[in-house]
Amino acid sequence: MKLNTIKKQVYFLTCTKNTQQLKKQRPDLIKGKDLRYKQHWQTILEQVKKLRLENFDFSLDDLNASEKMLKESLVKVCQLSGMDDEKIEIEWQRIQLEAQFSDIHIEEL
User: Fold this and answer.
1) What is the pTM of this model?
2) What's the domain of life for this entry (predicted)?
């Protein structure tokens, strides 16, 4: 596998765009590594994959239940504020669209 391909995978899996951002956001992954060498990037990629597997404990059912709970909460809050069903649905679609491009935190809603 080429170095650029490995880097792209690392960036994708760590949600970073470049080496500078990776260094800033994930210093734990690059500690003691010289990023000029392919072998060090391969080690980072293996670490990231291992960490993702360890932290991937959500099932699809958990995610669906969480989404359902969020939508129910949104509907209650919007109804209390006087929004009609059409506006509530538009707001829900906006949240889903925004979630496709970035993380959404409940405080922002």
Assistant:
1) 0.50
2) Bacteria
